[in-house]
């Protein structure tokens, strides 16, 4: 009777493992939203705990079969063979569920890291946009504009490492078919804003170059005007060339 009960327990254990494999490992998952991904991570954590908790039951079965084998060798030998199959399948199930749980946790960590980098770079873009607007709204004074542009250039020296991380993390998730629509939308919006601000900065710098050139021309024109008036006065007063200051000659 004890051998019959142990055989039944082994069959139940094998049936439970088959169901666990179908439920946790053979389903096709699509993670199209952060909520779906987070729920999948939590589900796999529960699955891992559930499977590992069965380790106690497996050990009890193993001990009982060994004890039976010492008392009834014939029955114990048959059960030992079945036990080895169950133990092998159980270990395989544990390893696969641990592996999938670890993978999903890594994917979730990758998603959170991507959001953190996007937050950092968005804050930097906000700062950059504010500096561009300040530069554009300044009165047309070269010193003030130059100071603003120097401030803007200091912001532009922001390292590109974060943008590299955003691109790589996003591509990794998209390649895995995970949150691909959401991530593609976020990356597209971020890149579009970055390109727009880069274009505005280029225009602002070009405008500043034009302002500086115009200022130099005004100074030169004023200087030539002063010189023309001075020379005209010399001619009017019939002053000999050798009597003129050296710069006028």
TrEMBL record:
Record InterPro entries: Spectrin/alpha-actinin, Spectrin_repeat
The keyword Phosphoprotein is assigned to this record: no
Coiled-coil ranges (or none): 3-64
UniProtKB keywords: Coiled coil
Keyword hit for Coiled coil: yes
Spans through the membrane: none
Record's protein name: UTRO protein
Source organism per UniProt: Mohoua ochrocephala
């Amino acid at each position: 009777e004890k051998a019959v009960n142990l055989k039944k327990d082994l069959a139940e254990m094998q049936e439970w493992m088959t169901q666990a494999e179908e439920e946790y490992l053979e389903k096709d998952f699509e993670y199209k939203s952060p909520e779906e991904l987070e729920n999948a991570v939590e589900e796999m954590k529960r699955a891992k705990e559930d499977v590992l908790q069965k380790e106690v039951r497996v050990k009890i079965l193993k001990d009982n079969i060994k004890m039976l084998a010492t008392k009834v060798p014939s029955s114990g030998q048959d059960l030992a063979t079945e036990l080895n199959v169950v133990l092998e399948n159980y270990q395989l199930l544990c390893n696969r569920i641990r592996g999938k749980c670890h993978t999903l946790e890594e994917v979730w960590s990758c998603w959170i890291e991507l959001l953190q980098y996007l937050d950092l770079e968005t804050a930097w873009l906000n700062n950059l946009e504010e500096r561009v607007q300040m530069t554009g709204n300044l009165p047309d004074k070269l010193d003030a504009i130059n100071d603003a542009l120097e401030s803007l250039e200091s912001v532009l020296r922001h390292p590109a490492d974060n943008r590299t991380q955003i691109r790589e993390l996003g591509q990794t998730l998209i390649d895995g078919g995970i949150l691909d629509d959401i991530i593609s939308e976020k990356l597209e919006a971020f890149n579009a804003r970055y390109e727009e601000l880069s274009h505005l900065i280029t225009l602002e710098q070009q405008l500043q170059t034009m302002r500086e050139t115009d200022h130099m021309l005004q100074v030169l024109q004023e200087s030539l005007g002063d010189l023309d008036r001075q020379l005209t006065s010399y001619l009017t007063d019939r002053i000999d060339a050798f009597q003129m200051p050296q710069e006028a000659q």
